[in-house]
Every structure is written in structure tokens, then in C-alpha cells.
Amino acid sequence: MAGVELIIEEKKDDAVDRQKVCPFLLRVFVSSTGHHHKPSEYSKGNTPQNELQIYTWRDATLHELTQLVKEVNPEARRKGTKFSFAFVFPDIRQPVYRFREVGITTTGVKGPDDLKTLGQLRINVGDYMDIAITPPETWNSGRKGYSNNYGNHRSRPY
Q1: Which residue(s) pair with 129 in the sheet?
Q2: Residue 128 in contact with residue 46, Cβ under 8 Å?
Q3: Would you say which domain of life the source belongs to (predicted)?
Q4: Of 5, 39, 59, 90, which has the fewest beta carbons less than 10 angstroms from its beta carbon?
Q5: What topology does CATH give the domain 24-140?
């Protein structure tokens, strides 16, 4: 069988043919304070003012979304800047919005959440995304024993 070449291509479980599948609108709200917006900022049809509208697919990764946000936010391009991602969605039992933190990426540092896709994270069309950006000098202030691992992330109480 000379001249026969076998090519094995690895496909992601939620891979999308972006040439054939129409993207959906993801409304993204960015906070540069290091904290997510308050749930009350999403109540009664209101949303925070700093909105990015991104057309994307279910196979988009958190790293890919980080790159898109950095294109429009020059301060976030500095190495060590942390991006904390959360989905914001309406509670079906009450007239309020809920948050679900889904991952963290860091500029210039590979992390365990970088390759997570929106599909793997179970986004629903119509959910918002809230991204809290933390500059490196704020979250890594040189404290001994401090690590920037995802497991050490503490969310702010509302």
C-alpha cells in the first residue's frame, strides 16, 4: 500500500462550521473594577452601560473572547490582567437575574479555562456575559504565598 496516507483530524465535540452556521449575538458587559456588576444593574429591562456586542458561535473559547475584549480595551492587554467570566440570566421563578461564574483567563498566561467553549459551559442564547477585568497590580500585589490559580478566586458577595 505504498503512497497511501492516513490523516486523522481531531474535532472538538462542539465544533461549528463557521462558514455554514450563523453566529449568535452575545451581549457582553465589561467592568474594569475587578468585580462583576451587581445583579440589580440587570433588573427591570436595564443593563450596565459598557456593552460590547459580539457575534460568535458556541465553539468560541474564553481565550478567544479575551482576545476580542483586549482589541477594544487597551489597558487589558498588559500581561497578568485577569478576566473573570460569568453568565447572567433571568431566574425563571423570580423577576431577578442570576450570575454563574464560568472561568478565568489571564493575559500572557495559559490557564485551565482558556480552551473552555461557550457550548461546554452551557450558554443559552439570550444569556448575557459579564466580564470583570482586574489589572495585575490589583490582584497580585506581591503577597507571600499568593497564587493566581482559579481555585483561589473568591467572588465578591452581593
Answers
A1: 28, 87
A2: no
A3: Eukaryota
A4: 5
A5: Ubiquitin-like (UB roll) (3.10.20)
Q: Specify the residue for cell string 473572547.
A: 65
List CB contacts of 31: < 8 A, sequence separation 6 or more. Answer: 37, 48, 50, 130, 131, 132, 133
Q: pTM for the complete prediction?
A: 0.78
Q: What are phi and psi of 138, to 5 degrees?
A: -80, -45
Task: Give CA–CA dist 5/99, Å, rounded.
Answer: 49
HSE, side-chain direction, 13 A CA sphere, residue 5: 3
Q: Which amino acid is at 155?
A: S
* CB hemisphere CA count around 2 (13 angstroms): 0
In which band, very low, low, confident or very high, does the pLDDT at 45 lie, cut at 50, 70 and 90?
confident
Grid cell digits, residue 34: 475587578
Indicate the residue type of 44: K
Extract the C-alpha cell encoding 83: 478576566
With cell 460569568, the residue in question is 86
At 111, list the grid cell. Answer: 490557564
C-alpha cell at position 62: 474564553
And the C-alpha cell for 47? 443593563
For the cut 60, the answer to whether the pLDDT of residue 41 exceeds it is yes
